Amino acid sequence: MVDTINKYLETQLALAKQKLEAKHEIENNVTQKSKKVAALISKKQKKNFQSNTQESHRTEKTSHQASTSGTKSSDEDSEYLPSCEEDDDVHIPNLTTNSRSKQNIKKIIDDGNTTLYNERIDNWRNCLKSSLSGTYEGDYITADVQYILQGFKDHDVNHELQNGFCVPNYIWKQLYKYQRTGVKWLWELHQVETGGLLGDEMGLGKTVQIIAFLAGLSKTDYGTWGGLGPSIIVAPATVIYQWVSHFHFWYPHLRVAVLHHSGSHSGNHNKLIRDLHSSHGILLITYAGVVKYIKDLLLKKWHYIILDEGHKIRNPNTQVSKLVKKFGTPHKLLITGSPMQNSLQELWSLFDFIRPGLLGTHTAFMDHFAVPITQGGYANATEYQEATALEIAKALKNIITPYMLRRTKAEVQDHIHLPEKNEQVLFCALTKEQRDLYMGYLMSSTVRSILDKDSKFGDPLRARVLVALSTLRKICNHPDLYLYEAHEENEEVDEETFGLWKRSGKMSVVHSLLKIWLKQGHRTLIFSQSRAMLCLLEQHLQSHDFKYLKMDGSVNVSHRQNLIKTFNENAEYLVFLATTRVGGLGVNLTGADRVIIYDPDWNPATDNQAKERAWRIGQQRNVTVYRLLSAGTIEEKIYQRQIFKNFLSNKILIDPNQKNVLTTSTLQGLFTLEDLNCEGDTETTALFKHTKVNLTDKVSSAEKSKVSKSLSFSKRKVEEMRRKAREISKKIKRDLEMASADHEDPREKYKKKRELMLNPPKIEEPETNIFDDKITSTPFECVLSELDIVNKHTKIDYEENLIKDVLNSQEGEVNEVASESENVKQVENTDANNKMSEQNLETIKDYNDDNTRTGEKSKSGKRRYSSECDIENLVKVKKVKHKKQKKDKDKKCSDDDYVLSKLFAKATVKNALHHDVVVGLAEKEKRHKIQEEAIKTAQKAVRAIKFSTK
Ligand SMILES: Nc1ncnc2c1ncn2[C@@H]1O[C@H](COP(=O)(O)OP(=O)(O)OP(=O)(O)O)[C@@H](O)[C@H]1O
Question: Does this UniProt record's set of keywords contain Hydrolase (predicted)?
Fold first, then answer.
């Protein structure tokens, strides 16, 4: 035993030495220029830290206010500070200004100005009249006019629902079935005077459902307002005019005014509030606007307050979160496609708005719900913790289900028939220059001060880490974003080479992609976190004569909607450039069928929101999304973190490759530059090997068939091999059980358990269908998948707790059973409390029933869910597809394969992963684990009953 430990330590020592030597060699190869630049930048950063620290001491009081206001960092809501949405951007020289193609975009006009409003209403009435008489020649197309032009005569008839609720026929008939369910649900909530969260996945028409409901309300004589009273919709700046144009299209009758400096009203804002209030209209306002005008808004009574992209109030401590909760009405709706992004606390904050008190006080919720659920999700959680977490999560689901409606695209695919989506992560090679600069910066005093615990830097470590990470990200994007920081004020910029695509690995990939897509006739959305990067991309597009449009924080809010419309309707624009924050939320960009996410965000929801701009209702073509990552760099770590924010599965965390993943939690892990392993894989592709895009499979199908032939076995042989595998795995299990019964040395036991976890024996997949439809269709499960409960996990606490777990495993058993039964009691009580409110909301039951039915269908038809879950199932999906669809898919595959083969050939892309398969596998593993745990919980319950009778 001592021998083994010694041997192990020796190997580790040898490995560490080898690593150190390799590191020295790399460091020696860093050029003098790179070291000099890094030193200069580090010096500047240090100076900034010092002046910032002094500044922050001086303005401590005011900065505290700003940090809790939630407005400064609220990106696109910067209408009062037009271009400060991406604070840490470098201001690079604008070489593009002279030749910049003019974006001649018209404004959308809201109804803030009474004269203009009356003109619009007259125009609409004329259009209606002329369409009815068959002489329509207007320029204002609305949903009712469109309906008449399609030959229908009943546009002014209402569709009556339960308790006299009337929705105009022309709207009702154009809604998808699930949207009708949504409208009914909103009406149910209205009648019981409560708020709700409409959480449908992005692009399923939440806006339309809300407008249909409000239109219905205005047609229904009900309640103190006798229909629809004056209401407020709060939305991010980019989408407020989208609301205007949706209202003007679907329900032109209603007055919709924007309270924002871009709005059409003139004069005092109080006058607008008064006018709008008396005409029972809709006041559209940004989140920043709420903070600014809260006093005047609270002076009036409002019927509805609706938060679009309501996840913006997920942090309960921001000023805006606190202020929106001050409106007195019970009719509060929150709309978001990403209800929970990071933690359960966020869910609490959202529900604290729609139904204050439902989830208790913040402290009580954190103690009794958030903490146990979070603990149960850790890889090292005990069985008791896991079971408790599961039960509490179920109880939480029961509480919130009546007030939350969420449907996924997969669930409603039979209604909306979205085209296919292919999403891949491309690992791009850094250029030589980038590598050199990256290594140079890693050796700089800023990074050294972070890694050196005894460093004498006075400023907070956190600030230094953030600056260093953002500097590394700049190098990943383009060397010039970094080098420009070292520029002296009067230094000339070399216009020939500044921002040149060849100098950045990712930009080279963009260059190749755009060239190919131009030939293939695709149109592209490019998202970047950074405005400076967007400028470099813009310069590139101009020099290659690509027609493009660009939207970032500097574009006037009232122009944004028309910019989007122009792109969607005008195919000559090949590229739409946007910052992820301004263009990635809420808008419809279905004109594009290709999406490039140039740099990843720490929060996976931000990137997910961005990519959903193209893949939504209205998209006719297959969509391909490429996320670009610089291989081996900080971007890969960010991506891993993104994935693990989506992972709740213990099994994934105890994957043989987990060591690599968990190192991302250490500072050292973040400040390294990883090389490819011996198989040519990056860190992430090695982790998710099974999801790797393997072109050779498709390219040389002839060869493949040769190989498969030579490796084929008879059925009998396969059966025999399976039997053997089963026997072996049983034996290993038996041995392990016997070993634990022998009370062997806990260290030895730990080693064995760890070994087994790292190299699990191949056990056949159980036959059970883990995609149990009930689980899949439960909204809360979808939400849970976005819950981050493993991200704080580190390798060290994993290992330490694993040892503890092994040592405690015997004594824990009895205690667990006792305390668990107590826990079950608590949960039962919560269940009972919530039964009352559930009874009132019949629609939700209808919806769930509906889902179960569709689920059954899918079980036998093997149509849905599977495509998101594993590659094998994907093949099956292909097989059952209609011929034409198959042809489309094949075409898309060959298009995408062609693109990838080109990129691989140029060695600009090192590897590619199927993003949705990576996330889908995690989902599958999660459900598998949950089901296993449910079984264990049931077994324990039986044991508890037996135990209690003894
Ligand atoms: N019933 C419908 N008929 C026609 N078009 C529809 C219908 N429902 C939705 N759409 C269209 O689908 C697109 C997406 O709708 P919408 O913007 O309301 O989605 P969303 O769920 O609010 O998305 P996000 O979460 O991204 O904001 C819009 O272009 C909208 O006009």
Answer: yes
**Ligand 1, from 588, 606, 612: best to mutate by most atoms within 8 Å of Cβ?**
588
Instruction: Select from 796, 804, 476 the least CA-distant residue to 665.
Output: 796
User: Is the C-alpha dihedral spanning 37, 42, 47, 52 positive or negative?
Assistant: positive
Q: What is the Å distance from ligand 1's center to 942 Cα? A: 49
What is the rounded distance in angstroms from the CA atom of residue 601 to the CA atom of residue 607? 6
Instruction: Write down the H helix ranges in 404-460.
Output: 409-416, 432-442, 445-451
CA angle 295, 299, 302 (to 5 degrees): 110
Give the nearest ligand 1 atom to 617 CA.
Answer: 12
**What number does the ligand 1 atom closest to the CA of 618 have?**
12
- Token duo for residue 12: 């580790």
Cβ atoms of 30 and 440 closer than 8 Å:
yes
| Angle, alpha carbons 279-282-287 (nearest 5°) | 140
Q: What is the distance in A from the centroid of ligand 1 to the CA of 368?
A: 38
Q: What span, in angstroms and rounded, lies between the C-alpha atoms of 202 and 408?
A: 8
Give the residue whose CA is nearest to atom 12 of ligand 1. 617
Give yes or no for residue 245 CB within 6 A of ligand 1. Answer: no
Write phi, then psi, for 578 (nearest 5 degrees): -150, 150
SS3 call for 431: coil
pLDDT along the chain (950 residues), means of 10: 73 75 70 82 77 56 38 34 38 51 70 93 92 83 91 87 91 95 96 94 94 95 89 94 95 94 87 92 96 94 96 92 94 89 81 92 88 73 78 83 90 90 87 91 85 61 81 93 80 77 91 91 93 92 92 86 90 93 84 93 79 89 91 83 52 28 52 66 61 50 38 55 58 52 50 50 35 26 28 30 35 35 34 36 40 36 29 23 45 62 63 65 57 59 53
